Amino acid sequence: MGSNNLTGVVPSWLGTIPELRHILLDNNSFTGSISTSLLHNNSKLQTLQLADNFLIGNIPQEIHNLSALEYLSLRYNMLTGSIPFGIFNMSSLRELGLKDNRLSGWLPNDICDVIPELTVLSLGDNQLSGQIPSNIYNCRYLEVLSLSYNNSNGSIPSAIGSLNMLQELYLGYNNFIGGIPQEIGNLSNLEILSVPSISQIGPIPSFVFNMSTLKVIQFGDNNLSGSLPV
């Protein structure tokens, strides 16, 4: 029922269908908060798509009850509060999309200890703070890492350079210091490197021009100098 003009609240009776596998209600005009009743009895639910609506309030802590969930997309809503740490204990999760909300808080240090097969982590355009966890290397199947437009600080961990499956990396418009680490050059499958406004000083790191898979390079709003290779 995605991409329609449905209104009202997301019906809580969807949580009473024990064999339900997929809830696809994205790109509608639902309002209100996510009912905890939706999350209690759906132990077989694999997909929860509520993106592109007008949902408000917190992400319920009870979301971790969805023990079979693989795809969670709550992007483009108006959700607030912190990301429930229980989400990072959902071992079946493959894609987590929370981009473009008003979420705050920080990422747990054990971010991928329980969900090592996560392929998409899309958290951009929120109000997240703190540092990128140094053990991000445990997300070894990650293909998309999107953290742009937050309040993250500290340095960009060199451990990102060990994410060999990574294809898209978005880190721009945070409060990072020190620019991008040399280890980013080890990402042999990277196609998009988006790092505007990360306090990069001096010339563009030379390793960028040796990454043969890159299709998009974004370094805008930094303090770059020097010349491009000829």
UniProtKB/TrEMBL annotation:
Name used for this protein in its record: Leucine-rich repeat protein kinase family protein
Molecular function as annotated in GO: kinase activity
Signal peptide: none
Regions crossing the membrane: none
Protein's UniProt keywords contain Repeat: yes
SUPFAM superfamilies found in the cross-reference section: L domain-like (SSF52058)
Alphabetized UniProt keyword annotations: Kinase, Leucine-rich repeat, Repeat, Transferase
Source taxon at top rank: Eukaryota
Keyword Kinase: yes
